[in-house]
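Cross-check.
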Amino acid sequence: MQIIIKGSKGFEIFDKNKDYIEKKFRKFEKRVKEPAVLEFSFHHTHATRANIDKGIHLTFTMPGLTEPEHIEEISEHFNETIDLLQERFDKFLSRRREKKIDAARKPKKYMVAEKLQKDAGEI
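Predicted model, tokenized:
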């Protein structure tokens, strides 16, 4: 899994934030198909009154996805924003896995009927 970290419009990113992202998102390597790309874009807006101005935009691409997944979070500190992104990304992967499993299942009555037909020699 490739992780790309960049700042929008020349925004400088500290090494501790890069390491924190690596630590939080490397654990998802087993749950995604390769070659997966996580692209983080840091931005800092100075236009808010409540100091909720540190945002990160995540773009996730993976084989099997028709369109890239975009997730964005804003909070008071970058570490909080990274934690919020990690939770939302985890929920996204869980929902995707559940949809895949549900689509692969057949109702039990069809499996029983198919077994009976095989036993009777009809199939």
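The first strand starts at residue 2 and ends at 7. The mean pLDDT is 85. Passed to J.P. for a second look.
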